[in-house]
Design a protein that fits this description.
Elements: H1 5-10, E1 20-22, H2 26-36, E2 40-43, E3 60-63, E4 74-77, E5 83-87, E6 96-100, E7 108-109, H3 111-123, E8 127-132, H4 143-160, E9 172-177, H5 179-190, E10 212-215, H6 230-235, H7 241-247, E11 260-265, H8 274-285, E12 290-295, H9 312-325
Parallel strand pairs: 6-8, 6-9, 9-10, 10-11, 11-12
Antiparallel strand pairs: 1-3, 2-5, 3-4, 4-7, 5-8
Length: 330
């Protein structure tokens, strides 16, 4: 039985009675997802990546919405086989976006920061790829590098499959939220850094996005501005000066950074708005195109999906305008 995406978004009602559902091993989980979810499941790596401290951990999906029949918000952890869900536009215009959900480096919130975003972008003709990346808190030998490595590899895999999905490999952008915004801002500023050793011919392709859109991003790891969970997740404790310099995208902005669209709420009580402001200032200083929208209200994690009082109904049209101006699509 095939499922439309809207039917799939309603499917989590079966999880509402329990806080979480274990999907078993990574191979079992991917097989189950390929059979039940819309879009195509695409493995990022030809073999499961090394460095897992808990290679047999199960994937877990939780429903976090009190009323999923009205507004569903699910999250996943235990990702040992990073992958993407490909969601082609019904009328593709040749463009693509890699969507990177957030979750505090512990979870992957793949609906209001994933599927709901893809719905809107698909209607604009943009083919979408939702990234299910390795989470620093899941236990990895190099926790700071695993997410950026998966994001780089995802960009290259999208470009390697461009003809199959009817997209222009030059017109691929990245949009990410919160901790996914950390990966997005890293892709904006350090897309050419070496986060992993090449594994095949795909790794000869560029990982530079045409544009990026970090939404309420975790960006700085400087304790004066950082989200409090960033350094413990990425480094196992407080960041050293060397780590602050290496892993804060605002300190790595150069003229080769990707054009960037920024969104944050002034009343964000989890990730200080200074993350966005500092990145904006660094990009402007590097003479990189940047557009910034700061909303008075919205808190953290509004994503998209119709939460009352959130700015989600405003920023997506603004992003599409920016994307058109930056030639993601005509």
């Amino acid at each position: 039985m095939s499922l439309s995406r809207r039917n799939f978004v309603a499917l989590p009602v079966v999880l509402a009675g329990a806080s979480s559902l274990s999907l078993g091993t990574a191979a079992e989980a991917l097989a189950q997802r390929a059979a039940t979810e819309p879009g195509e499941v695409i493995d990022l790596w030809p073999h499961p990546p090394a460095g897992a401290l808990h290679p047999d951990m199960a994937q877990v999906i939780e429903q976090t919405s009190a009323n999923p029949a009205v507004w569903s918000s699910r999250r996943m952890k235990g990702i040992t086989r990073p992958h993407m869900i490909a969601l082609p536009a019904a009328q593709p215009n040749g463009s693509a976006m890699l969507i990177i959900p957030g979750g505090g480096f512990q979870w992957n919130y793949f609906e209001h920061e994933g599927y709901h975003i893809a719905d809107t972008l698909n209607r604009a003709g943009i083919t979408c790829f939702i990234l299910f990346y390795r989470l620093a808190q899941d236990g990895w030998a190099e926790p700071a590098s695993v997410g950026p490595a998966d994001a780089q590899r995802a960009m290259r895999v999208i470009r390697a499959n461009a003809s199959r999905f009817h997209i222009d490999p030059e017109r691929v952008g990245v949009l990410g939220f919160s901790a996914g915004g950390f990966l997005t801002t890293t892709m904006a500023t350090r897309h050419s850094a070496t986060f992993y050793s090449p594994v095949d011919a795909t790794d000869r392709l560029s990982a530079r996005p045409l544009l990026t859109a970090p939404i309420y991003p975790v960006q700085s790891v400087d304790p004066a501005y950082a989200y409090g969970g960033a350094a413990p997740s990425l480094f196992g404790g407080p960041a050293t000066q060397a780590q602050i310099r290496e892993w804060s995208p605002d300190l790595n902005a150069t003229p080769n950074a990707a054009p960037t669209f920024l969104v944050h709420a002034e009343d964000d009580g989890l990730v200080p708005v200074a993350n966005t402001v500092r990145l904006r200032d660094a990009l402007v200083a590097a003479k990189v195109t940047v557009e910034t929208h700061l909303f008075a209200h919205g808190g953290h994690g509004f994503g998209a999906g119709g939460q009352p009082g959130s700015p989600d109904g405003f920023w997506l049209p603004l992003f599409l305008k920016f994307a058109r101006e930056e030639k993601l699509f005509a």
